[in-house]
Amino acid sequence: MAIRRLKDLPKDLDTRISEDFNSLIKDVHFQLSNQHKKRPITMPVWTGFFASSWKASNSAVHATHKVEDYQPWAGIKRERSLDFFARRKAGPPYTKQTRPKKPVVRPRFPVGQGKRIFNYRKSVFIGNKAEYSQYVLESGEIQRFVQGELAKLIKENMSDKGKLFIGGGVSEKYSGTTQTGFEA
After folding, report:
1. 10 pLDDT exceeds 60?
2. CA–CA distances in Å: residue 137 to residues 103, 116, 152, 167
3. Buried b / exposed e across 21-42, counting CB within 10 Å, b at 16+?
4. Among 22, 67, 86, 174, which has the minimal tally of Cβ within 10 Å of its Cβ?
5. How far is residue 101's CA from residue 123's CA, in Å, rounded to a whole number?
6. Share of the chain above pLDDT 90, in %
């Protein structure tokens, strides 16, 4: 007998899909946070704030956090800004600004802590809280991740469970905010 509705799944299969779905969310968050040492995404890491600001939620994630409001990233940005203005003040020929020696990548919204479990029957949004995140999208790295690495993560975590649909959109209310939702 074929099962036609998700709520009619056998309990063991429902549990397995839920565990695998949550594993997928953790893996995607881990990759976007540039924590994978062997295969990090080549997104620009200046202070580390962008890589540290990924969040998984059941509602849309809005880019509202300023780097200046969070330590240690505010200190790193201030240090680099002072260096930039000192170089400008010195006059031509301008030397290229150097990257910070130790950008800090420390996820501010970790996935999988406590009893937080995402329901595979509901949408999950993975977005970035950094206010300037729309400018990082210009590099194309997020798009390449969604088109390439994300498919591999889905196959690794959800291959024998059926289809998983990915939807993306741009928020009109919050200019430049992108959202990616996963639905089973």
Report:
1. yes
2. 20, 29, 21, 17
3. bbebbbbbbbbbbbbeeeeebe
4. 86
5. 39
6. 23
Q: Average model confidence (pLDDT) for the chain?
A: 79
Torsion of CA 151, 154, 155, 159, to 10 degrees: -140
Q: Is the pLDDT of residue 150 over 60?
A: yes
Q: Which two tokens stand for residue 14?
A: 């429902």
Distance between CA atoms of residues 92 and 163, nearest Å:
58
Residue 29 token pair: 């968050």
Question: Is the whole-model pTM more than 0.85?
Answer: no
Task: State how far the Cα of 170 lies from the Cα of 100, in Å rounded to an integer.
Answer: 31
Could you give the 3-state DSSP secondary structure of residue 120? coil
pLDDT at residue number 44: 66
Question: In what helix (H) or strand (E) does residue 181 lie, and over which residues does it extend?
Answer: strand 178-183
Percent of the residues in the chain that have a pLDDT greater than 70, as a whole number: 73
